[in-house]
Write a structure and sequence with these properties.
Elements lengths: L5 E4 L2 E4 L3 H4 L12 H13 L5 E4 L6 H10 L3 E7 L6 H13 L6 E7 L6 H13 L4 E7 L7 H5 L2 E4 L5 H14 L2 E2 L2 H11 L3 H10 L1 E5 L2 E4 L10 H10 L5 H12 L5 H9 L1 H4 L3 H18 L5 H17 L1
Parallel strand pairs: 3-6, 3-7, 4-5, 5-6, 8-10
Antiparallel strand pairs: 1-2, 9-10
């Protein structure tokens, strides 16, 4: 028996599974925030011409949405590649160069390299030559969370644009419009709780609202926020172990990360750095921990199992704290 594109979450069944995809902005008028940036993009769309772009900013603030919005409003052929999945030089040589060198009946071709900060150094070096070689027919849009991971020669070939998060008010209004369209009842208090907890990550805010939508029967749906969902989660538990380490801290931390179901550990590195003053015993220990964070962040680019790399870092931090 074949089933259509439905999803079931806590009894809530609807077509078009994810809010983040169903309500991804398709025009500049729908795009939330970044008014100055929208003016720049509007000129590109009007002229049907584009510079190579490098969009950077924190996760969930609209980089990929803006990149897809641009190609959807251009008369172009385009190729989308998620560089976190295909990050090697072979991807650049085969897929990117193959598409850039192919013939097209459209005025321009655009290649989106999403999460380009995951590209290896060799892949980035190869990409800069392709950008120059096919500059007459092909434009590139790169997105990244960490601008410093993009090599300078690649940055110099692009117009670098920072995606600033929309205000909390704009995010709350955007989410409330989506909930109204889905006929989901909610309280302002619950909406504020979610926005305050996950701001500026709009994607996470929408996902949290969707997961916490329950079926009240008779096609009535309600947003019900359990405060346990909005606690600090793994971060609070992790910090607690680091502030008061014990003989079982390593085992406890392994369990905390396992229970968190993380598939991206970038936030862990940043969290360990941002909270350094809370668990670092003295300036020497803090300095040593910063060096370890930087070292393991670098090695994460070459590790297949990211969780093992993070646990090795936490083991090193526990050793520094205990000594």
């Amino acid at each position: 028996m074949a089933f259509g594109p439905f999803f079931i979450i806590f009894g809530y069944m609807k077509e078009n599974s994810l809010f983040v995809e169903k309500y991804r902005s398709k025009t500049l008028d729908e795009y939330v925030g970044n008014e100055q940036l929208k003016q720049i993009v509007s000129k590109y769309i009007t002229n049907n011409d584009l510079q190579n772009l490098l969009l950077y900013g924190t996760p969930g603030t609209g980089k990929t949405t803006l990149a897809k919005l641009i190609v959807n409003n251009f008369d172009c052929d385009y190729l989308y590649i998620n560089a976190s999945d295909e990050r090697g030089i072979d991807t650049i040589r085969d897929k990117v160069q193959g598409f850039a060198s192919s013939a097209s009946f459209k005025p321009i071709k655009i290649i989106i390299l999403d999460e380009a900060d995951f590209l290896t150094i060799q892949a980035q070096a190869s990409l800069r030559n392709i950008i120059e070689t096919y500059s007459r027919t092909t434009r590139f849009i790169l997105t990244c969370n960490y601008l410093e991971r993009i090599i300078d020669p690649l940055q110099s070939r692009c117009q670098v644009l920072k995606i600033t998060p929309p205000s909390k008010k704009e995010v709350a209004q955007h989410v409330s419009i989506i909930l109204d369209k889905e006929n989901i009842e909610y309280t302002v208090e619950d909406l504020v709780l979610v926005v305050n907890k996950h701001y500026p990550d709009v994607r996470k805010i929408l996902n949290t609202c969707q997961v916490n939508t329950v079926d009240g029967g008779a096609n009535d749906y309600y947003l019900r926020i359990d405060n346990t969902v909005l606690t600090g989660g793994y971060k609070d538990e992790l910090l607690k172990e680091l502030k008061s380490p014990s003989k079982t801290s390593f085992k406890n931390i392994r369990q905390i990360l396992a229970d968190s179901n993380l598939d991206d550990f970038e936030d862990v590195y940043r969290f360990l750095y941002d909270t350094l003053d809370e668990y670092g015993k003295n300036d020497l220990a803090k300095a040593m921990i910063v060096i370890e964070i930087e070292n393991y962040m670098y090695h994460a680019n070459f590790r297949l199992d990211k969780e093992i790399n993070v646990m090795a870092l936490l083991a090193s931090i526990l050793k520094i704290i205990n000594n």
